[in-house]
Each structure stands twice: as structure tokens, then as C-alpha cells.
Amino acid sequence: MSDRPYTTVLIIPTGVGAEIGGYAGDALPVARAIAQASDRLITHPNVLNGANLYWNLPNALYVEGYALDKFAAGDWGLAPVRQNRVGIVFDSAIEPEIKLRHLQVADAARATLGLHLSDYVVTDAPLQVELRTAASGASWGTIGNPGSLLRAAETLITQAQATAIAVVARFPDDFESEALQLYRHGRGVDPLAGAEAVISHLVVRQFQVPCAHAPALLPLAIDPDLSPRSAAEELGFTFLPCVLVGLSRAPQIVINQSQSNNLTDIWASQIDAVVIPANACGGSAILSFSQSNAKIIAVGDNRTRMQVSPEAVGIKAIAVNSYLEAIGVIVADRAGLHPAALSSSISSLRQLSINH
Q: Measured between alpha carbons, how far is 167 from 213 in angstroms, rounded to an integer?
């Protein structure tokens, strides 16, 4: 047994219609189970965010997608923290009543959860978020005024000493769209997720601080046929609570490994296992991890709109049917057992020929 903490990375790509993790916090049970089987779990907001619902996982690290890509490549490290000072950026396009609802949520998070929040900033121009859908069905989006977002984030960092940034952008209301109706009924792709990723990527790339996004939308009409997987987003006026909770303990980013605290900071070389949907293996993070000693565990029954198998990109992976099986592989590996030893058929050893 190694004295080093067993560290697992759980990746479920954003906006690709994952059957588990493609909705409102529906991957939280998976994260909770994997966290129990590991000393440390590293995952991203798409997995842990459940709008007004969240779960405290003391050994989980909440890492934004761009930062996770840089971490996987070995460029950045992660420094666990006890508490961040979270600043909030509000899109100036948000109507006064909706902004007030979000401010009340922020105050409630301070009063009931003890979170450390700074003063907030309103952007100097509307962010102009637009939503798009790729041919594959994956969602993405654009932001018309990225400079306005970055100026607001810089103000929070320099004037309010914020160490993490929550962004609340006004997203288009498209109540009658087919994509939204399918998503609410548990049969479609999250139409907001791709655009949300663009927003957080911009801030993390520019300032190297934790960031996550909560869209501002008008409340939807009640739907009696709502899917349980989408229901968390229907509970209130805002998606902000889970973002504030996640960012409150999100690890800080370490840029220079030579200045890293070797006792506490985490680097890609310390990752033991990476769990990924089996047909979504084309992302930057998983391609980087595949070049390391980490075990790649590909989960077959978490289907997505992507069609990139481990074999298609030359990744050696352990194929499992479910997250329950993935957890079994992690437990066996942590115990120093080869997974094949737990099956009923073990092949005999073969003699190799010596090359002359």
C-alpha cells in the first residue's frame, strides 16, 4: 500500500447530453460514491452543481474545466484551501428583480452557510450571451462582450481581494424551444452548458483563479411531466447556491511547480485513476491523462452525443459497464489488486521468447 493519497479524477464533459451528469446535478450520487472509494476526488462544476441542491464532499476538489485541462497537461497544480473569498460578477443585462433575487441568495449563503463573499460588481456593458448547437447535438455559445466580463473580474480581484469568481450572466429565455422541452423531460442536451463553459474558461485563462457560472433566467412555467434529473433547476429563482458552495473551497491554481508546496499541492503525476464516459474520450484532459500512469476507466452506460471511444484515439482503458463497476476497479486498485483477480477466469501465464 502506498502512503500517497489515492486520487481519482471524474470527468463528464459539459453540454454533450451525457445520460448521467448531463442534467442538474444528476452526477452527484456518482461523485459521492467515488469520493468514498478514494482519498481525494478531483472533478468539475458540471458534476457537482445542482442549482439549489449541493452536497458537501470534504475530500472533493471543484476544478473548472479549463483549469482541469491545464492540470492534466502538467502545466498547473492545485492547492487545496480552507475557504475562498468569492466575488460575484453580475451581467448588466440582468433585470433589477432578478438581480435582487441573486443578491438575496448570496446574503443567505453568508448567513446560513458561513461563506466568505466579497462585494459584487456589475459589468460595464451587457455580456450578450448567445446559445448555439453543434451538428452532433452538443451545446455551445458565444459572449459578445468578453472584455466587459474580464474588467469586472479584475475589479473583484484587485479591489475586493476576491480569490474565486462567480459569474451570473443573463441568458436568453427560449421557453418554447424544442431543446429546452427535451432537456426538461430528461431526453435532451443541456442548452446552457456549452455557453457557461465559455464564460468560466475566459476568466480562468486570464486570471488563473477558480471560476464558475450561474445563468440568470426568468422562472419557467410549472411542468407536471418534469424529469427528476432536471428538477433541481426548477426549485427557485437562481442557480447560484451550488456555485457559491463549490467555489468557497475550490483549490487555488499553482502556476510554477518550482514554487509549489510539495506537501499539499497536487499535480497530474499524482493521479491514480480517471473515470470518463466511454464514448467521450476526445477531450484535452483525458488525452493528457492517457499519457500518464493513471488508470483510465471508461464507463459504457453513460452514453453521450459524442462518438469518441478510447480505441479511436489510441487510449488504453479499462472498460466497465457502469459507475458501480468503475468504483469496484478503484477499490481493487487502491488495495493493490489486479481487477482480473476478481473474475472467475484467469488465463495462464505465457512464456516469452528471448530475442537474439
A: 5
What are the structural domain ranges in the chain? 7-254
Q: Which of 161, 247, 177 is nearest to 212 (CA)?
A: 247
**Is residue 327 within 8 Å of 37, Cβ to Cβ?**
yes
Cβ atoms within 10 Å of 287's Cβ, excluding its own: 17
Instruction: Confirm if 195 and 127 have CB atoms less than 8 A apart.
Output: no
Look at residue 1 in the predicted model and tell me its pLDDT.
Answer: 47
CB 305, CB 137: distance < 8 Å: yes
Where b means 16+ CB within 10 Å and e means fewer, 26-65 reads: bbbebbebbbebbebbbbbbbbbbbbbbbeebeebbbbbb
Identify the CA nearest to 129 among candidates 217, 225, 211, 44.
217
Position 38 scores a pLDDT of 98
Q: 274: pLDDT confidence band, cut at 50, 70 and 90?
A: very high
Cell of 197: 463553459
CA distances for 110 relative to 54, 80, 115, 143, 244, angstroms: 16, 21, 5, 30, 10
Rounded CA separation 35/290 (Å) = 21
Query: Per residue in 9-55, pLDDT tens?
Result: 999 998 888 999 988 889 999 999 999 999 999 999 999 999 889 99
